[in-house]
Amino acid sequence: MSTVREEQLNLEIPASDVSSRWQKLINWFQPKASQPLYDRMLFTVAMALLAFGFVMVTSASLPTAERLTGNPFYFAIRHGIYIVISLAVMLATLRVPTNSWNQQSGKLLLLGLIMLLMVLVVGHEVNGAQRWIKVGPITFQAAEVAKLFFCIYMASYLSRREDEVREATKGFIKPLALLFIAAVLLLMQPDFGTVVVLSATTVAMLFLAGARLWQFFAVFITCVLALILLIIVEPYRMQRLLTFLEPEKDPFGAGYQLMQSLIAFGQGQFSGAGLGNSIQKLQYLPEAHTDFIMAVVAEELGFLGVLAVIATVLMLVSRALIIGRRCLMQEQRYGGYLAYGIGIWFSIQAFVNIGVASGALPTKGLTLPLVSYGGNSLIISALAVGLLLRIDHERRMLGRKVAPRGGAE
């Protein structure tokens, strides 16, 4: 008995070793000045979302892919290819100095607006919405590109005209005029969800730049009135609002998708039915692997899974905001405002996507960044993460008083 007891004692891990391992893990996420100059927490969280998205897209898309193509892994393979392309884009972005984006911000904004205009002329229509431009086998969504380019321009504008934004009304109005042009082009597609995300991001960036409080009240009232008008003039928007308020009145018509999503949330309960065991993805829930992927997460992984996804997205957003604040403290105004803009954009889009799937918001066609199926959204989101990593790299290099190199370490 004594020999067995000694062997058990030898198998126990000393408390000092456990503490040392935790300290090593903390040091890896928060490296000291002598360690590699990039935000490991941001990179790890982004990779975790990409990996989780691949698993959930594979699980959610199997029945649909089998029905449409005869290959149950059709969408999973395509999503894997999109992830590889996204990682390549992210690495390429790390090689580009942020000042290059700043210098080309005006041209990029113009390119984004031209692409939105092209959608209306030569756009490819899917499910009644003309939002895509098709060039041979490649189809891309101009709105995704426009969101990023608008953020890049806004960061450049605020870094150059910060005093004008704070002291003069015209400094506040100028970007809103450009936002109005972009919103009109988006509403003609129609793409109301992108208008909401773009508008909220722009106004939030102006607020962080120090615009006056009364201006926000004026913009808020204007947006509310415009929202009411847009709902009244378009019957399908009024139908969506009524369906959102009482989906059970038409469970097999306009309220079908929301009802199926709510059923998925209810069936998941606390710990879920298990990965791959969703019933709603078996031809009951439309768009299960795209806009409503959180419903499948809720059914298969339960409340714990949904909570983990929300916490991970919040970690990504918080790192972006922390990078933005640190850049502004070091007088890197362009990088700071761009990091703020990307963080706000991700948070609003994730909030809308999860809110729609859970029935808290009316239906909008927005993906969950880095998780949902969709090449355009995935690539642009990865590019935005690459920008964040590059901004943080340059900030750390400046903190060391060393000129930034061509790529992040």
From TrEMBL:
Pathway: Cell wall biogenesis; peptidoglycan biosynthesis. One of its GO terms (biological process) is cell wall organization. It catalyses: [GlcNAc-(1->4)-Mur2Ac(oyl-L-Ala-gamma-D-Glu-L-Lys-D-Ala-D-Ala)](n)-di-trans,octa-cis-undecaprenyl diphosphate + beta-D-GlcNAc-(1->4)-Mur2Ac(oyl-L-Ala-gamma-D-Glu-L-Lys-D-Ala-D-Ala)-di-trans,octa-cis-undecaprenyl diphosphate = [GlcNAc-(1->4)-Mur2Ac(oyl-L-Ala-gamma-D-Glu-L-Lys-D-Ala-D-Ala)](n+1)-di-trans,octa-cis-undecaprenyl diphosphate + di-trans,octa-cis-undecaprenyl diphosphate + H(+). Its EC number is 2.4.99.28. The keyword Cell inner membrane applies. The chain crosses the membrane at residues 41-61, 73-96, 108-126, 138-159, 171-188, 194-211, 216-233, 301-322, 334-358, 370-391. It is an enzyme of class 2 (transferase). The keyword Cell wall biogenesis/degradation applies. One of its GO terms (molecular function) is peptidoglycan glycosyltransferase activity. Keywords: Cell cycle, Cell division, Cell inner membrane, Cell membrane, Cell shape, Cell wall biogenesis/degradation, Glycosyltransferase, Membrane, Peptidoglycan synthesis, Transferase, Transmembrane, Transmembrane helix. Its main location: membrane. It comes from the Bacteria. Pfam families: FTSW_RODA_SPOVE (PF01098). It is a multi-pass membrane protein. InterPro entries: Cell_cycle_FtsW-rel_CS (IPR018365), FtsW (IPR013437), FtsW/RodA (IPR001182). It is found in: Cell inner membrane; Cell membrane. GO terms for cellular component: cell division site; plasma membrane. HAMAP family: PGT_FtsW_proteobact. Belongs to the SEDS family. FtsW subfamily. Peptidoglycan polymerase that is essential for cell division. This is Probable peptidoglycan glycosyltransferase FtsW. The lineage of its organism: Bacteria, Pseudomonadati, Pseudomonadota, Gammaproteobacteria, Alteromonadales. The gene is ftsW.
